[in-house]
Amino acid sequence: MLKISQETIQDQELEHKLKALQTLHPPKSAKTLARVLVGMGVFLFICLFLPWQQNIQGTGTVTALTPQDRPQTVQTAIAGRIISWNVQEGQFVKAKDTILTLSEIKDEYFDPQLLTRLSEQVQAKEEVIAANRNKVTALAQNIVALGEGLQLKLQQAQNKLRQARYKLVMDSTDYEAEKINFQIANRQFTGGENMYRNGLVSLVEYEKRKLKLQETNAKLVSMENKVLAAKAEVINARIELNSIAAEYAKEIAKANSDRSSALSYLSDAEGELSKLRNKLSSVEVRVQQRAILAPQDGYVVRALKAGIGETIKEGEAVVTVQPATPQKAVELYINAMDVPLISKGRHVRLEFDGWPALQFSGWPSVSVGTFAGRVAVIDYVNSKAGKYRILVTPDHNQEPWPEQLRLGSGVYGWTMLNDVPIWYEIWRQLNGFPPSLNEEPSDGEGGPKK
């Protein structure tokens, strides 16, 4: 090294002879490891710039999209005692199939001929109502007849009164004429008496004039009596006219009273008939309610009551039925902070319990065993634990969901958002920032917010 000696030492020979020099060089495995680590670092650095699809995670269960397709309890509308079961758990039933039959436990419905007796009561009440309607009609006709009779009687009485007045006028005229005749006869008698005293007329002539005066006086008295009788007839005609009006008014008032009473009784009878018909209809419906029917096609999941002779209350659930062909959906529960980022129609990847899956949440295209869906419903209020529920339906453009899915199965889901670099996603997760969006999400009604 100092080149004091003229002799040179070959490097390889020196290293071969001197073992200590050999330990100064790194081993080949270390160089290989270094190259691998550098390569991995370069690969990871490159991967930081690969696209990563942001997502919102949530857990939930399989359910039905519409409420009518979800499991429902069949309840009884009446209280009763179970007398027979027509199905067993797990059995398929069609709509209107009888699930179980009840018997009555209320004493007012014990009579087996209750419907027949109620029908007879309704029929009897209808006959009573028909008779009262006929009575009301007859009374109305009687009132009309009394009114017509009153008019006729009044006309007759008025005619009689008019005739009496005419007769009174005639008799009064005759009476006035007789008064004049009496005055003439009286003057003639007075003149004849003076002439008889003076001897100008004979006794026979004097007696004739006296007789004529007496006859005239008698006629005058007779005519006066006729006038008084005619006045009495006029008064009687007036009294009769008034009495006819009063008598017929009394009869008409009585007929109206009877008609009003009949109408009142008819209204009460019609009200009672309505109650009887209502009770009859209620009993008919109650008889039908003794058989509890399946509301729709489905499977009997669980019997909530057991045994024969067990008593159940009104509105108590007796069995649970699962509809046969529900429109399946998934309900996922997500955090409240993530709700504004989700809109209807968003893609969702789902992992069902019982189906092996390998999920890369940021790379759904390379995931295995997951299924596609779309957001269909976003709740407007929070659910359990302050989280919000979303309903996810199958994406018909992708692989269909498994037919073996049962309602209530567990689900893990990812709502897919926008693509970002991996380094940005790592930075976002480390700082707790929410996912980023290119535009404001829709308001849940199919359009973006304004």
Summary tags:
OB fold (Dihydrolipoamide Acetyltransferase, E2P), disordered C terminus, Helix Hairpins, 14 strands, 3 domains, Elongation Factor Tu (Ef-tu), domain 3, six-stranded antiparallel beta barrel, four-stranded antiparallel beta sheet, alpha+beta, 450 residues
CATH fold type of the largest domain: Helix Hairpins
Q: What is the count of β-strands?
A: 14
Uncertain residue ranges: 444-450
Identify the CATH homologous superfamily of the largest domain: Helix Hairpins
Assign the CATH architecture of the largest domain: Orthogonal Bundle
Main sheet, how many strands, which sense, barrel? Answer: 6 strands, antiparallel, barrel
Provide structural commentary.
The chain folds into 3 domains: 47-69 and 326-450, Efflux pump adaptor protein, beta barrel domain (Elongation Factor Tu (Ef-tu), domain 3), CATH 2.40.30.170; 72-104 and 290-323, Beta Barrel (OB fold (Dihydrolipoamide Acetyltransferase, E2P)); 114-284, Helix Hairpins (Orthogonal Bundle). Helices cover 47% and strands 20% of the residues. It contains 6 helices and 14 strands. It has helices at 11-17, 19-22, 28-47, 114-198, 203-289, 422-431; strands at 51-64, 72-75, 80-85, 92-93, 98-103, 291-293, 298-303, 311-312, 317-323, 328-334, 347-352, 371-378, 388-394, 410-421. Strands 1-10-13-12-11-14 form a 6-stranded antiparallel barrel. A 4-stranded antiparallel beta sheet has the order 2-9-7-4, with no helix packed on it. A 4-stranded antiparallel beta sheet has the order 6-5-3-8. The longest helix has 87 residues, at 203-289. The chain is rod-shaped. The model is unreliable at 444-450 (pLDDT under 50).
